[in-house]
Amino acid sequence: MLGVLQGFTLILVIIGAGYATALFRVVEGEQRRVLNNVAFFVATPALLFTVLSGSDPGVILSPVILVTTAAAVLSAAAFVLASRLWFRRDLAGTALGATSAGYVNANNLGLPVAVYILGDAAYVAPLILVQLIFFAPTLLALLETTRIPEGSRPRGRGGAARGALLALGRAASNPIIIASVLGLIVALAGVPVPEIVAAPLGMLGDAAIPMVLLSFGISLRGQRALQPGTGRAAVFTASGIKVLLMPVIAWGLSHALGLGAHEVFVATTIAALPTAQNVYNYAATYRRAETPVRDTVFLTTFASLPVIAAVAWWLG
């Protein structure tokens, strides 16, 4: 558990540094969005290209990854159902809430958990690919539809189809999606990336996660988490699905597919990871459901630690 505690401590220290930055007025108010924008448009695309271009896409077909992917999709669907039944959200809020319920922190916390609890980082690396290739582009495409001005949305017969094409066109110009597609193409083609290209991209990519965490910490200054009127029902629902329901779904699917004891343990542990900070970066960049997503990331980061410890004690 020492490695897991180190992973949690690393995240919390950087978030705390962001909070201190706001506390001492080094960065104030909307200035933090500069960090979000640089992370979204520059650092994160560099990180995704670096990760995907050096990966093996074939590993996403492992049984554990199929189980965790299915658990994430079912968790997102559970949030959508709960939203329709108990608290209605707009498209962006529903998409971001559903993503918060299933998109795991496979990098900052997933890697320490994989190394120190599961015994092999290879268990988490494929999930990073799945989230980058499928989940992130889907969310960004949905968010792009909310950026189309009302007067510009096609109406009448065939308007819905034209609107969808317009949104897809805007999504196709998104730097994160472009970087992911290019990285995947390079990996599939087996083309080596020259060092003169890989080195600066790697340096930029290393800055992505710290900038997102700093911006997250800055956003906490002057705004208490889980305040009334900030969508607490959605936050508690997404958080409960993420740290409680998703591990149960993964455990059940693993047994249903006849996976071995260790594979059941791995899939359940991965599913118990908290919501990734990337989801907050997307929400902050598009300025949609920012506060509920921030609170969900905050809550699941703390709540997941005892859940992961319980899973390790029960199944490990």
TrEMBL record:
Q: Where does it reside?
A: Membrane
Say if the entry is tagged with keyword Transport. yes
One Pfam family per UniProt:
Mem_trans
According to the record, the segments passing through the membrane are: 6-27, 34-54, 60-82, 94-117, 123-143, 164-191, 197-221, 233-253, 265-284, 296-315
Q: Which InterPro entries does the protein's record reference?
A: Mem_transp_PIN-like
Keyword Transport recorded: yes
Query: Which terms are listed as keywords in the entry?
Result: Cell membrane, Membrane, Transmembrane, Transmembrane helix, Transport
Coiled coil feature spans: none
Q: Which branch of life, at top level?
A: Bacteria
What is the topology of this protein in the membrane according to its UniProt annotation? Multi-pass membrane protein
Q: What is this protein called?
A: AEC family transporter
**Species whose genome carries this gene:** Leucobacter allii
